[in-house]
Amino acid sequence: MNERNKSKLQTWLEIFFISARLGLTSFGGPIAHLGYFHEEYVRRRKWLDEKSYADLVALCQFLPGPASSQVGIGIGVMRGGLLGGVISFIGFTLPSVIALIIFASILHTFDIGEAGWISGLKIVAVVVVAHAILGMAKNLTPDIQRQAISLFALIITLLWQTAYSQVSVILLAGFIGYILYRKQALQDKDQPIAQFPVSRRVGIICLTLFFGLLFLFPILRNITSLEWIAFFDSFYRSGSLVFGGGHVVLPLLEQEFVPTGWISEQQFLAGYGAAQAVPGPLFTFAAYIGAVMNGWQGGLFATFAIFLPAFLLIIGTLPFWNSLRSNPNIKGALMGVNASVVGILISALYQPIWTSSILGPKDFALGAILFSMLVYWKLPPWVIVLSGAVGGMLISS
């Protein structure tokens, strides 16, 4: 092996081990993940400077999908090329995928769906989503116009629960944001632009694949009876249409898999609660759903399907981000989209999370305690999860 290849191999191994360590220790959701990344990649290892990191984060916040995973992919690309991006993604994602597949297997093998600690994990889901709503509402709905957009999104997604309601709301909110905020966005100053080692040709190929798969698989699903096509389409579409991070994927996945009977609502909410207990991206919840349906092979396939859009989008847009983010029309539309995310989250908090988890005064009391532990006492998420499991066993005994 020549020195150049040896150097590349060392770089890829370094990317894998560092991202895997982060995947094992990064609790707290996407915002916390970005803090871990900054500490490791910018301050400790100096793989990129502050401006480049800020620019990459801005791009990933702009795109649909799991922002923290996309930032990790982008850093891997900057450090080790396209393969470096794949390795970074695998390292950061694999620990939580394995944990959730094991949990699904235990849930199926021992039939623990009625266990008290499962009820506790459902209440944890209520607390985590409520906390996410508070933080996002403060940042994404600071004025009355965006608060009205959020209210509109809440009402529509609550009363019109179809597979297309979230998509329709996001598109309409983007148009309203474009009308209301394009002049304000025009006045905002851009941050310095980072350069990413991806050619425009590669970017175009990835974007073409993203949109091609998004439109092709629903058509194939309607004209064939192959279960794996329907399976892939549901996960891929969910991963393609999520603005605002992992918590917003909940209503999309719930509407794709619970009404069809592929997974029960109890199994769905139990898995969502368990997903809070593991580090890494919340999108790995798909691994749990896939494993419940088709074992560990289904878990890996679901993970591939739901993360593929994020990978294609980040690689596809890197070469064009300089011109894209300076467009005031896109900035204005994004402000409207982000406001609608808050309403979609509130809708998801009520149905199915709240209505299936808070069934009486004891459940509400446990939820209040867990919420206080998370919001006021600032305890880490894994403590909240363990406390919820214990509390669920106590109140059900």
TrEMBL record:
Membrane topology per record: Multi-pass membrane protein
What is the first-listed, main subcellular location in coarse terms? membrane
Tell where it localizes.
Cell membrane
Q: Which GO terms describe its molecular function?
A: chromate transmembrane transporter activity
Residue ranges annotated as transmembrane are 12-37, 86-107, 119-137, 149-181, 202-223, 274-293, 299-321, 333-354, 374-395
**Can you name this protein?**
Chromate transporter
Which InterPro entries does the UniProt entry name for this protein? Chr_Tranpt_l_chain, Chromate_transpt
Recorded GO CC terms: plasma membrane
Identify the keywords attached in UniProt to this record, alphabetized. Answer: Cell membrane, Membrane, Transmembrane, Transmembrane helix
Give the UniProt family note: Belongs to the chromate ion transporter (CHR) (TC 2.A.51) family.
Family matches, as Pfam families? Chromate_transp (PF02417)
